[in-house]
Structure prediction request, 164 residues.
Amino acid sequence: MVQQFEGKPSKKDANGSSGDNVFDVARAARMTTFGLLLYGPLQHVWYVYLDRTFGKKNYVPHFLAKLGLNQTVLGPVVLLSVFAWNFVLEGKAGELQAKVKDDFWPTLITGWKIWIPLASINFWLVPLNKQVLYMSACSTISTGWLSYASNRSIGNLLTRKRSS
Prediction:
């Protein structure tokens, strides 16, 4: 979905011919495995922890604590993990530091614009046993953004590295 939205230049398919916006299977697999192997299980543990620590439902101080920790602790961990996951699996681990330096804050701040409203609904209205499901459904938006953010500057990084 994100790859189509980006309107990236055509890539050569397995037969060597150029097609319109050939789907990058490896990129999709990286993001899918990240969600299934890391983010999904992490969400479960995280939301159980938050609920045990700040268990009063619809109590503003607990709601704000959950929301604040979700955005200032989980958000950066997930963002750094996505960047690392993608760069390591692409064999570009050496470029990760530059990626984080250039894109961490802009990506995190944009993510907050998506996640603060979604997490507010999650912590205020959604029962604990449905929070991972709700946030996983919402994460299709965020995963699209993270996929785009994780892949958007790779070419720029390479060009900048060569010209330095």
